[in-house]
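Quick review question:
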């Protein structure tokens, strides 16, 4: 889901805001090039586990932590993007507001991973993990949830 803001005013300041919002993007999740191998575990493993849990895979039921977090905070996302738009015309740089929105979104996803309880783990999985939290085993996937703000050319801001 890519959140958008509709701006219903006109003028040079509004053109600048629209241009800025089209020139930057905010990415939240397990980001390519941002995670490292740990022991014998390849780095891509964390992203694979996250995708399998988000969408389900084989005997793993769907536990949509990313989609749930974004859905629950749709209004907060809109407010954050409006702050970005206001900052573009004010004294604070819009990139700082975009970074704040990214930090908030990162925290929403991490909290969803911690709080999600359904569907529950199988009894055998609970016995192996010694925990009933479906999305936390070592905590690495939760830790790897990050954000970045990028410009149109793909450089991190």
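Suggested answer, residue by residue:
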């Amino acid at each position: 889901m890519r959140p958008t803001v509709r701006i219903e005013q006109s003028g040079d300041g509004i053109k600048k805001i629209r241009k800025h919002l089209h020139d930057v993007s905010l990415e939240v999740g397990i980001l390519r090039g941002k995670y490292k191998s740990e022991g014998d575990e390849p780095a891509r493993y964390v992203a694979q586990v996250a995708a399998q849990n988000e969408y389900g895979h084989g005997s793993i039921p769907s536990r949509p932590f990313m989609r749930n977090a974004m859905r629950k905070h749709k209004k907060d996302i809109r407010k954050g993007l409006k702050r970005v738009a206001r900052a573009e015309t004010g004294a604070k740089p819009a990139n700082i507001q975009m970074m704040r929105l990214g930090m908030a979104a990162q925290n929403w996803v991490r909290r969803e991973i911690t709080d999600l309880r359904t569907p529950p783990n199988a009894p055998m999985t609970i016995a192996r993990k010694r925990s009933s939290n479906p999305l936390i085993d070592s905590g690495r996937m939760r830790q790897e949830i990050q954000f970045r703000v990028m410009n149109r050319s793909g450089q991190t801001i």
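Why it works: The first helix runs from residue 12 to 23. Strands lie at 24-29, 146-151.
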